[in-house]
Amino acid sequence: MIEKVNLAQAFAGFSDHWSPKIAGDINDMQIKLVKFDGKFDWHRHDNEDELFLVIKGVMRMGLRTGDIDVGEGEFVIVPKGVEHCPKALDGECHVVLMEPGQTLNTGNVITEKTVRNPDRL
After folding, report:
1. Nearest to residue 75, comparing CAs of 95, 52, 92, 97?
2. pLDDT tens-digit profile of 30-71?
3. Of 50, 57, 93, 61, which is closest to residue 72 (Cα–Cα)?
4. pLDDT value at position 37?
5. pLDDT grade for 112, boundaries at 50, 70 and 90
6. Count of alpha carbons within 13 Å of 70, Cβ hemisphere only?
7. What is the DSSP string of 79-102?
8. How far is it, in rounded angstroms, from Cα 21 to Cα 24?
9. Was domain 21-100 assigned CATH 1.10.10.410?
């Protein structure tokens, strides 16, 4: 069955931060929605690229080579193996992720923010 996803309604349906929710599947990729608040943990994904599309707010993608600020309607792709640390600037930030389904949100590190089995919306 083909269904549309209204991003505003989907983001309104949860309130927790740093806990990705699966919104859809495309082949072996997943579309995940996540709310950022504050700073995440430095990590990398050895085998997966990640796309971060900002829907609301501003995200600073911390990179060892220099930070990139990403605003509403903008996205950044972090290649596999690149250490990164996302951060919400000026309050909560709503982000759409596109990544392989097996991608662990904390990559090569395990912390209290690690989500092994994301909920589906």
Report:
1. 52
2. 999 999 999 999 999 999 999 999 999 999 999 999 999 999
3. 57
4. 97
5. confident
6. 28
7. -TT--EEEEEEEEEEEEEEEEETT
8. 9
9. no
Query: DSSP letters of 41-69?
Result: --B--SS--EEEEEEEEEEEEEETT--EE
Q: Report the C-alpha gap between 119 and 121 in whole angstroms.
A: 7
The predicted model scores a pTM of: 0.94
Please list, in sequence order, all residues whose beta carbon lies within 8 angstroms of the beta carbon of residue 61, skipping any fewer than 6 positions away.
52, 67, 68, 69, 70, 76, 78, 84, 85, 86, 87
pLDDT, tens digit, 9 for 90 and up, residues 73-110: 999 999 999 999 999 999 999 999 999 998 989 999 99
Cβ contacts of 112 within 8 Å, gap of 6 or more: none
Domain residue spans in the chain?
A: 21-100
